[in-house]
Amino acid sequence: MGRLSPEFQQVIRAAFVAACSLLPCLAPAYTVNINPGARVVYLAVGNGSFTGTLSAGGTPANNATLNTVSATVPAIAIGDATAQTMQTNSTQAASFYDGFIFCSPAAQQVYVGGFFRRPGNAAGSATLSVSTPVGGLVNAGGDTIPFSQISWASSGIGDAGIQVVPPGTFSGGTQTLAIFTRNTWNESCHTFSYANSSIVAAGTYTGLATYTLTAP
Amino acid sequence: MKFTPGLVCELAANSDGRRTRRSGSIYLVLTFIAMMSQAAVGATFAVDDSTSYVHDANTSMKWKSVAPSRQAGNQVEGATVVTVRLNLIPWLNKSGKIYMALAEQSIGPVKATWTTQGRLLPGQLSSGTRTLVFAGPIRSPLLEDTIVLKLEADGQRLAAAQRLQFRFEIDVD
């Protein structure tokens, strides 16, 4: 193949430059692929943990503490239907949301709060439930007290209106307590009481209430 | 580089008759191209950024707030680094304004905020709009900068991976 003449080379160069001026019409663009946020579920009943505070960018952490609520009924008052406020060893007063003192452990309030994160527009809310033994609370002698003898009031310092986790009574078995709207912080403070409506054998009765937040 | 019809005339004058006939169609094309090139003045054109490099092309978005607020907190955010390389050869020695743009997205508004190393202007934009990143005379064929790009979207609408295709365009003065 022979060498191109200078004139023809000049034409080719000119065509190349001119073509370059049109290339932007076909210009590609840089692309970033973004992926959805992760699912997250967090629930604290009683003492919970949070590294830092939410407002400072803190993150939820695990806390294996099992808090208790208890009532000691004087012998003279057993079964007199006078409700007994249950004491708690929970010390959780502050909301992890912003550090606000939301519950009063001194007033025997137990913090109940959490949230769940779910990306996308599919419908779905998380369900907070609690499970208590159908057989009730049991003492060393095998005597029982139905869990339905225990109920709770719900409030929150500075709150007015209906609580996210409303007041109720254990039913024995699994029961739904609340629906947590996704991507929303939910919290309430519960004050437990023993109904004391029946005469029971002396002893220490115990039972475990397990709270579960189930997210779709 | 500036390409004008005058250059085409000069080429024709320097060619003999045979070469003029052979390249006659080329001259017609070049004349058309030259007219298009002249039309670039005062118009908006896409800028070739094909050599731009996204350091993490797959950005995992995180919830803007680890835990949500008492109201809804649906925003997700993420960040990546982009080495922007703009091919400005067609507008060399001209003056213009360069914008970064993002088309409207099916997942709703996407907000982009970026910082730069100084060659481009920092700024922010929402999908469906464009923002100025450079203004003035173009003295270099390649405009390069590294930007830290932060993105924010509605986590409720971001159910699957979403492709965000940014583009650059120039308004030639």
Characterise the protein shown here.
The complex is a heterodimer of chains A (216) and B (173). Chain A has one helix at residues 6-22; strands at residues 31-35, 40-45, 49-51, 59-61, 69-70, 84-85, 87-88, 109-117, 126-132, 137-138, 144-145, 150-155, 168-169, 173-180, 186-194, 210-214. Chain A has 216 residues and is mainly β. Chain A has one domain (40-214). In chain A, the strands form 5 sheets. In chain A, strands 2, 6, 8, 12, 13 and 15 form a 6-stranded antiparallel beta sheet that branches. Chain A has a 3-stranded antiparallel beta sheet with strand order 14-9-16, with no helix packed on it. The radius of gyration of chain A is 31 Å and the shape is elongated. Chain A starts with 5 loop residues before the first helix and ends with a strand. By secondary structure, chain B is of the alpha+beta class. Chain B has 2 domains: 5-39, no CATH class; 44-172, Jelly Rolls (Sandwich). Chain B has helices at residues 5-13, 17-22, 24-39, and strands at 44-46, 53-54, 58-60, 62-63, 75-87, 95-102, 111-115, 123-126, 129-137, 142-154, 162-172. In chain B, the strands form 2 sheets. In chain B, strands 2, 4, 5, 7, 8 and 10 form a 6-stranded antiparallel beta sheet that branches. In chain B, strands 1-11-6-9 form a 4-stranded antiparallel beta sheet, with no helix packed on it. The longest helix of chain B has 16 residues, at 24-39. Residues 1-24 and 26-40 of chain B have low confidence and may be disordered. Classes of the chains: A mainly beta (216), B alpha+beta (173). At the A-B interface, α1 and β1 of A face α1, α3, β2, β3 and β4 of B.
